[in-house]
Write a structure and sequence with these properties.
The structure holds two protein chains of two kinds. By secondary structure, chain A is mainly alpha-helical. Chain A is built from eleven helices and two strands. Classes of the chains: A mainly alpha, B alpha/beta.
Chain lengths: 294, 417
């Protein structure tokens, strides 16, 4: 194939960053929950899928996309809190594989319940009218909706950063992640803190699912592929590091995009190749704290 | 009573117990069940399809319509009162799984025939099992390889279209109308590559220029990194050779990238279930092929009857393309059973080979050398306006009539004439 122009490479780079932003959004909830609770949430993809279905349901009830943007994180976050309170909480202090196995099984239950409620075949999810079409970004045309997703991801990241770094509750969360025992001695209800963190993490997963729906439609199995991608991003960025997840997400996006340009059939493998290389050179990932898993 | 026999001296108590024991053992053994089955059990048709996975929606349609063919056979009195039964298995769109399930159907369920599959690759795995076991397999999924001498056996039938016919029909329709510069986005497995080859073959007559072929893995969820490249090639026609959920997502994202403004998007096959699952926006204006559309009822009485029977069985729903294949695949086998008056494999093969049928889409027959069903190919366009009902999603814009000239020749496939 010919026609490798500067514009194409620039557009491809941009497409990679845009895809990276979507990866970041997929991964951030997973990373938050792991960093703060040391729970590897294998139901992350299922919460993401539930987010898309809640959005679909809100639309069926007559709501619009903007209502979904508020309703979906609230509903999925509340659901996440119920899961934390009754399923995850009894497992704290028992080793990292207990909640991992629990959430793994839970994801199957959630997918099956959605299949029963909504059927096995997928549903269309139209891009909101105002965000349809492609716009000229200087080097070529790019879908407006994807630009919106990048913006939404930036807003989520900024809000999360402000919350964790600039509020006193955020301070408690960070302290609780470092040493829950001391925080408890100081009179803080650590259980409640974890409940809220799990709620926020799953709310972001649901939000990501909603934003993904207009890109690929809605189907019960949609969470399966993103779990692997989110996991790679989290591992490369450093388990539990939100800044690391952002950097890794963007990097993975660019690597996929550039591989797609020169050897498209290798694009899927390139993600895992990148992970392998990073793990060899820096086993804890970019910004991971060594020993978090032990 | 026992006492009387014993006293008469003809049978000892010990011998009676032994005989009763042996009888009980025989009654409980699988051997006896087999004996009974051979005489009065249902005619079993194994039906492996990918109920879970990216082609799940289409596979469910296949099962629904196949059940209709079974119901019609049974309502019509079966084979001298012997009823038919569909034994459905989920092959999970995985060749290994399909082989295991098919073996299970043959060995444990003792099916008489196998109909099914929905993947160019998976059907070959099923075919390997059935041809080795000498069981008739009627494939209802696209494949070129299954026609070739290497994979073919006398037990292999192919009710579905093959990529050569399908891509040929679509290519012959679009190349003269929309331009010669063609770019391809192809799913990197048998279906994609066979369709691509079909388009390039058909394109020779029109001197098309192949601008480039971008491959993606099956089960891809994001095409945003492949589309800018394709767009930069500035093709007249973008041919997206994939299927199921891959097709839904690729068409949706290609629409988002604004490709339709400058380029006609075509697909070898437009699946009804995918069009419904993806919505009108993504498929709008896309041209592709199909083996069946319910709208054929204006042309054929058989289609009208099939639509009516299906809609009666499934609360007013109309059958889809892959549904029709499930129906056709099972119905042809059962009709052949009736003609043969037996479920004997060799007799049914002869009956199938002799069949000239019109069950749902106009005239069809199985070509002698490769058992490929010679049939029409429809060229359809997806619409987003003026829809009369929820199934009114396509418009038939062209038809390749049944003609062996549109198939690869028997010699080309390696069959001896």
């Amino acid at each position: 194939m010919t026609g490798l122009s500067f514009d194409l490479i620039a557009l491809q780079l941009f497409a990679g960053l845009a895809l990276g932003a979507i990866y970041v959004l997929f991964a951030i909830g997973l990373s938050l929950i792991f960093g703060m609770l040391t729970v590897v949430n294998f139901a992350h993809g299922a919460f993401y899928m539930v987010g898309a279905y809640v959005g679909l349901y809100v639309l069926m009830l007559g709501g619009n996309f903007w209502v979904c943007l508020i309703a979906v994180p609230l509903v999925v976050g509340l659901f996440g809190m119920v899961v934390e309170r009754f399923l995850i909480r009894p497992l704290y202090g028992r080793g990292i594989d207990y909640p991992l196995l629990l959430t793994f099984g839970l994801s199957y239950v959630m997918v099956e319940l959605v299949r029963i409620a909504f059927g096995k075949s997928g549903y269309p999810f139209d891009t909101p009218e105002i965000l349809q079409g492609a716009v000229d970004i200087g080097v070529g045309y790019f879908p407006l909706y994807r630009l919106f997703v990048i913006g939404a991801t930036a807003v989520v990241l900024l809000a999360l950063w402000l919350f964790l770094e600039k509020t006193s509750f955020g301070l408690i969360i960070r302290a609780g992640a470092r040493d829950p025992q001391i925080v408890r001695v100081l009179g803080v209800n650590v259980a409640q803190v974890w409940l809220i963190v799990f709620g926020i993490g799953t709310a972001i997963a649901g939000f990501a699912g909603l934003l993904a729906a207009p890109l690929q439609g809605v189907i019960p199995e949609m969470g399966g592929t993103i779990l692997a991608e989110a996991f790679v991003v989290t591992v490369v960025g450093g388990m539990g590091s939100i800044g690391g997840a952002v950097l890794a997400g963007l990097l993975v996006g660019v690597v996929v995009s550039m591989t797609s340009l020169f050897a498209p059939e290798m694009a899927k493998v390139s993600i895992f190749a990148l992970m392998a290389v990073v793990l060899i050179v820096r086993p804890q990932g970019f910004f991971g704290r060594a020993g978090l898993m032990s | 009573m026992t006492r009387r026999i014993t006293t008469s001296g003809s049978i000892s108590r010990r011998r009676l117990l032994a005989a009763a024991g042996a009888g009980a053992a025989l009654a409980a053994s699988p051997f006896r069940i087999n004996l009974l089955q051979a005489q009065e059990a249902n005619i079993k048709i194994g039906f492996p399809v990918p109920l879970t996975g990216p082609y799940g929606a289409e596979a469910q349609d296949q099962v629904r319509a196949a059940q209709l063919a079974i119901a019609q056979f049974n309502d019509g009195g079966g084979l001298h009162g012997r009823k038919a039964e569909l034994v459905v298995r989920d092959d999970k769109l995985n060749a290994g799984e399909a082989a295991t399930r098919s073996l299970e159907l043959v060995e444990q369920e003792k099916v008489n025939f196998v109909v099914g599959s929905l993947s160019a690759a998976v059907q070959l795995a099923i075919n390997n099992v059935t041809k080795e076991r000498g069981i008739i397999f009627n494939s209802i999924s696209q494949s070129d390889a299954i026609n070739e001498a290497k994979d073919f056996s006398k037990y292999t039938f192919h009710e579905a279209l093959n990529p050569h016919m399908t891509a040929g029909a679509v290519g012959r329709y679009v190349f003269p109308k929309f331009g010669k510069k063609v770019a391809f986005l192809t799913a990197d497995y048998a279906y994609g590559t066979e369709m691509l080859r079909g388009f390039l073959e058909a394109g020779k007559a029109f001197n098309i220029e192949n601008l480039g072929d971008v491959r993606h893995p099956i089960g891809a969820t994001d095409f945003s990194t492949l589309l800018p490249r394709l767009q930069s090639l500035k093709p007249d026609i973008l041919c997206i050779c994939n299927f199921g959920r891959d097709q839904q997502i690729a068409l949706k994202q290609a629409t988002d990238f604004g490709i339709k403004k400058t380029t006609q998007i075509i697909a070898p096959l437009l699946s009804h279930a995918s069009r419904v699952a993806a919505g009108p926006q993504a498929f709008d204006g896309v041209i592709g092929g199909c083996s069946f559309y319910w709208g054929l009822e204006d042309k054929f009485a058989s289609t009208k009857a099939f639509n009516a029977a299906f809609s009666k069985m499934y609360d007013g729903k109309l059958p889809t393309d892959y549904g029709a294949l499930g129906y056709g695949g099972v119905r042809t086998v059962l009709e052949a059973v009736k003609t043969a008056g037996s479920v004997d494999t060799d007799k049914v093969i002869v009956a199938l080979e002799a069949l000239k049928y019109d069950y749902y889409k106009g005239p069809q027959y199985y070509r002698k050398c490769d058992h490929q069903s010679v049939q029409s190919v429809l060229v359809i366009k997806s619409k987003s306006k003026d829809m009369k009902n929820e199934s009114d999603v396509f418009e038939i814009i062209g038809t390749d009539e049944p003609n062996e000239a549109n198939l690869r020749s028997c010699e080309e496939l390696g069959h001896k004439a």
